[in-house]
Amino acid sequence: MSKQFQFKLVLLGESAVGKSSLVLRFVKDQFDDYRESTIGAAFLTQTVSLEDGTSVKFEIWDTAGQERYKAPMYYRNANCAVVVYDITQSASLEKARSWIRELQRQADPSIIIALCGNKSDLSARRQVSQEEAKKYAEEEGLMWGETSAKSGEGVQDIFTDIAKKLPKSAPPSARTAGGRTATGARQGVDLNKQANATGGQGEQCNC
Amino acid sequence: MDEEYDVIVLGTGLTECILSGLLSVEGKKVLHMDRNDYYGGDSASLNLTQLYRKFRPDQSPPAELGRDRDYAVDLIPKFIIASGELTKILVHTDVTRYLEFKQIAGSFVYRDGKISKVPSNEMEAVRSPLMGLFEKRRAKKFFEFLQGWKDEDPATHQGIDLDKDTMEKVYQKFGLEPGTQDFIGHAMGLYLTDEYKNKPARPAYERIILYTSSMARYGKSPYIYPLYGLGELPQSFARLSAIYGGTYMLDKAIDEIVTDSDGKFVGVRSGNETVKAKQVVGDPSYFGAGKATEGKQRVIEEGKVVRAICILKHPIPGTDDSDSAQIIIPQNQVGRKNAIDIYVAMVSSTHNVCAKDIYIAIVSTIVETDKPELEIRPGLELLGTIHDKFVTVSPLYTPTEPGTDDNIFITRSYDATTHFETVADDVQDVWKRMIGKDLVLKKRDVNVEA
């Protein structure tokens, strides 16, 4: 049986840069041009299988429109973050920089941060050069990639790269995944009887 | 801000956030605003910087207390009853997915100068140092009576009618001593005064059964507590509201509740912008906080609570080094004949609310005199050396009108009870006033693994 690890991933970025579209492409391989905002989804999950036989299950938290007014709970125990900007809007990279500063201040110091330039299909209207974004990412020690949620280009790659980089040596602590334990190492009490009753790996409810 | 909403929610305290979440799930278009730049209002949990900014703006937190980010100090001390109404709301709305809970390690009661564990069933009653040999037998019979009660089986009633006979009469039937009545009514029934004794016994019966069934759930105490502090609760309901389309706006001044010539709600003004909505709901601080605003007294003060947040460097003496505890000091035990109980709530680094080897205890009661700090002294004296202490006296506000005429719905301040049952009551009450129907929570089995 392959080993599965579960991690909490938070999305950050200015509204309309395509955060939800990116996740929708990754999780359901869908795209909707007129997509407004995500309603009713607490978080989505998707599993990435790696060549070494392990698999990584992401529990992906969208901002749910609370971009400006995130609660500290949002970052709590996040193992990785995807900070999204729109390559056709240079202001969105500035905003991404401020999210990254906030992550560096508030999140766990071991958090893995990926900077993601979305809407690569609109490169004719490009305002943010690859060189500029890449240089900034290198300076800050971030992963970097460009994606198109519309065509799907680069989407799988960026999540797979994060999955590869996440530490698999130690299983995620009992506090990963927003309160639910990924392994049997529960330390608290669970109010939902039906959730994870056996403590088996990867048997979470996929809300 | 030219959109029109169904409901504007003012304040991000727990009551408002639960309502906001439930309203959004119901399909209402909700705008949720707060004057602060953080979630939680009075039910927030603060880090050290925020705590000092609030209580000692001229001081910065001492370095010896450790890292700022390790702290989440509650302003209102309350625990969640494992089988209570808030638990039902948490499970019904599925916000449990954002939270992790731990047990509170012990439930204690003060009796004759020392603290003892509260027995929660007939087995524990017979071992408890709170009672003598004969009293234990009587208490055992009393608990067996409560546990065995079946409405439909008169043989279990032993001549008692829970809906007519007073609790006093039930105590007398089993011949329980006043000290035993004290811990049963106050530490298990969680009544703050003795008024319940003169009323029909059913509510008291239900509260004692709630205590024992909550106790049976996890074993150590009937209480659970969210890791990272109570402030996680409003945040999780705010997220629920947001994922169902609720719009959030923090750090926003609320300057006026705008009404029409009939006094009916129109909108909320912030600076020179007015947002319109059909209804508004919010905490009392947005509606005058006891003073008349826009020519109308919307909330009145019912009393005051004194709360002392104490930083300790040791567990509370006499609690077997529990990492967390509740201690009830019944009014009769400290001669507060006209007042209510004093109680102590203690949590620690086990709950991710402070640095290692630090313990946060909050002592509180209703203010009866002009020397509130003196009134909580019996509680403070139980704590041993108090490293530092932050004392607040907060008014308890209640709305003057139900809001059904003017579409202005106001929640109540967080009271002096030790738990969230009254918060759940307020949510249900406000919901009914706003929607015109009872709040029906989906029936789900809330049994748990420990």
TrEMBL record, chain A:
> Bias category Polar residues: which stretches?
193-207
- UniProt feature, compositional bias: Low complexity: 174-186
* NCBIfam families on file: small_GTP (TIGR00231)
Q: What is this protein called?
A: GTP-binding protein RAB5
For this protein, what is any one GO molecular function term? GTPase activity
UniProt cross-references to SMART domains, sorted A to Z: RAB (SM00175), RAN (SM00176), RAS (SM00173), RHO (SM00174)
Q: Does the keyword Membrane apply?
A: yes
Q: Per the record, which residues fall in region Disordered?
A: 166-207
Could you mention a single GO BP entry for this protein?
Answer: protein transport
In terms of InterPro entries, this protein maps to: P-loop_NTPase (IPR027417), Small_GTP-bd (IPR005225), Small_GTPase (IPR001806)
Tell me which UniProt keywords the record has, alphabetically.
Cell membrane, GTP-binding, Lipoprotein, Membrane, Nucleotide-binding, Prenylation, Protein transport, Transport
Q: Which GO terms describe its cellular component?
A: endosome; plasma membrane
**PANTHER family referenced in this protein's UniProt entry, alphabetically:** PTHR47978
Q: Where in the cell is it found?
A: Cell membrane
Q: How does it sit in the membrane?
A: Lipid-anchor
TrEMBL record, chain B:
What is this protein called in UniProt?
Rab GDP dissociation inhibitor
This protein's UniProt keywords: GTPase activation
Presence of the UniProt keyword Metal-binding in the record: no
InterPro entries assigned to the protein according to its UniProt record, in alphabetical order: FAD/NAD-bd_sf, GDP_dissociation_inhibitor, RabGDI
The GO molecular function terms of this record are:
GTPase activator activity; Rab GDP-dissociation inhibitor activity
Q: Known Gene3D superfamilies for this protein?
A: FAD/NAD(P)-binding domain, Guanine Nucleotide Dissociation Inhibitor, domain 1, Guanine Nucleotide Dissociation Inhibitor, domain 2
Q: Name one Pfam family in it.
A: GDI
- Cell wall biogenesis/degradation recorded as keyword: no
